[in-house]
Amino acid sequence: MDAAITHWINSFAGHNAFVDQAMIAITQAGVPFIVLVVVLQWWSRENRQHLRHVAICAGLAFLLGLAINQGILLFLHRVRPYDAGVSNLLIAKSADWSFPSDHATASMSVAMAFALQRLPRRALAFFAMAFLICLSRIYVGTHYVTDVLGGAATGIVAAIVVRALYRENSKFDRFAKSIL
């Protein structure tokens, strides 16, 4: 079923040059764009100290999620869908294994970090960006659906761990906000 859904989503690739270019742009620039938007939260005029805390939480969740992925990649070696003949690739080949998707982890960790800090409008915007990034990774042929779901789960877990361990107005939080 995973391969069938992946193939179905990827089957739309190559039929509309505008959509193809948009998906390629999202897959290549989506995560850097999310990082930029998080960084820009630092200079927000409203609720500045809380948003700075959330920006740090998002960054920590981002890093923790990607670290977890590296651990997973030591044990799971899933072939990319384009190497298995499931998808047609629109971008350059990746050098690592397919599961889990780092793009999904990175984008979902940030979205979840904002959601856990009760910033619903910002969280919704980040979830929309994360969804587009996840979809683009399947569309361009570099990931299976379950790679993206696994990456999203890793990002969510990372954000929950950071939320549980890194408290607002703690000594470490005040220190982190003062040096950045």
UniProtKB/TrEMBL annotation:
Residues passing through the membrane, by range: 22-43, 55-77, 123-142, 148-166
Keyword Membrane appears in the UniProt entry: yes
Entries under InterPro entries matching the protein: PAP2/HPO, PAP2/HPO_sf
UniProt KW Transmembrane helix keyword: yes
Pfam families cross-referenced by the UniProt entry: PAP2
Phosphatidic acid phosphatase type 2/haloperoxidase domain sequence ranges: 54-163
This protein's UniProt keywords: Membrane, Transmembrane, Transmembrane helix
Protein name as catalogued: Phosphatase PAP2 family protein
Higher taxonomy: Bacteria, Pseudomonadati, Pseudomonadota, Alphaproteobacteria, Rhodobacterales
